[in-house]
Write a structure and sequence with these properties.
By secondary structure, this protein is mainly alpha-helical. It contains 6 helices and no strands.
């Protein structure tokens, strides 16, 4: 059997499906994009509001209180190093992306976990995926 028959059929089906999703789901994807972009912009604005040494001190204090003193010192020094190297804007942009992704993961994961805690069949479905 010629494998190109299968791949051509699959390619055509995939193109058709993605075209339909793009045409009919644009409003949903635009909404999701605007929410995520707004969250990212807000987090980035907050991170760029304070001078670099304030963010470095906050990171050092969080590292110290949540893990240990060495982690706090390393977190603070790493941020100071980024500022000294002239990479502060890029560092805050990356940190804003990480914080936004964490918020998204919490908003998706917590409700799914609650439902899985109450619905045994849903939990059995999720367990291999996790």
């Amino acid at each position: 059997m010629d494998i190109s028959v299968i791949t051509d059929t699959f390619d055509a089906w995939t193109d058709t499906t993605l075209g339909w999703i793009s045409d009919n789901g644009e409003w949903l994807f635009e909404f999701i994009r605007s929410v995520l972009e707004g969250t990212y912009d807000g987090v980035l604005w907050l991170l760029q509001l304070a001078p670099f040494y304030v963010i470095a001190i906050i990171a050092a204090l969080l590292g110290w209180r949540l893990i240990n003193a060495l982690s706090g010192v390393l977190a603070g020094l790493a941020l100071v190093f980024c500022a000294v190297m002239g990479l502060w804007t890029e560092t805050m942009s990356t940190l804003a992306l990480v914080i936004t992704a964490t918020i998204l993961a919490l908003f998706v994961g917590i409700p799914i976990g609650i439902v899985a805690g109450f619905v045994r069949s849903f939990d059995r479905f999720l367990e291999p995926v996790l």
